[in-house]
Design goal:
This protein has 187 residues and is mostly helical. The protein contains 9 helices and 2 strands; from the N terminus they run ααααββααααα.
């Protein structure tokens, strides 16, 4: 895959520095987490996250991620307003390539800190490559469904959004919350 050059002035040419400059704040990583693992795609969904991001910070981080090519945006076909202020956010291929990075960060934190959502951690530890593959596949299915719906100007049926035969990560999370009586995706 060809590398896209950005006009961003960096402190150095170090690849780790570039990563930190793009993703180094906690909010950007949590937005990517919510998109990747929880299926969030709208501004309102991001605001409902457990960490309670402020609206001005959320708007800034979404724009930053768009500028760096991590996410993209399309108008929401359900937005009836003429100004079209509602958007659907999607991970780009560059963004979904962060799945292994986020997986390793979760596993590192779980090994060294007292963290929640041990169901997710066990799933990642059991078969990390399968977990990452499933995240990529589900995101691709979600993106394809969203593309079809934007073109057709309609919303997906609830049982076909993520494929009727396989539950979404979001529905799995809700089952985990109900089973344990606690929130799963806290940091």
């Amino acid at each position: 895959m060809p590398r896209k050059k950005t006009n961003t002035k960096r402190r150095s040419g170090c690849p780790l520095n570039a990563s930190v400059e793009i993703l180094g704040d906690r909010w950007s990583l949590l937005i990517i987490r919510d998109m990747m693992l929880r299926g969030f795609r709208t501004y309102k969904e991001f605001l409902s996250s457990y960490e309670k991001i402020a609206t001005n910070i959320l708007a800034d981080r979404l724009q930053k991620l768009i500028t760096h090519g991590i996410i993209t945006t399309k108008g929401d076909p359900s937005d009836g307003r003429k100004d079209g202020r509602k958007f659907i956010y999607s991970l780009t291929p560059k963004g979904i390539d962060l799945a292994p990075v986020l997986t390793e960060m979760v596993l590192w934190a779980a090994a060294h800190e007292d963290t929640a959502n041990q169901v997710l951690v066990r799933q990642m530890r059991k078969d990390k490559e399968q977990f990452i593959s499933t995240v990529r596949q589900r995101w691709a299915e979600t993106a394809r469904a969203a593309d079809r719906n934007v073109k057709g100007k309609r919303k997906p049926a609830p049982d076909t959004r993520h494929g009727a035969s396989r539950p979404s990560l979001r529905s799995q999370r809700l089952r985990d919350v109900n089973a344990r009586g606690t929130r799963c995706w806290q940091h």
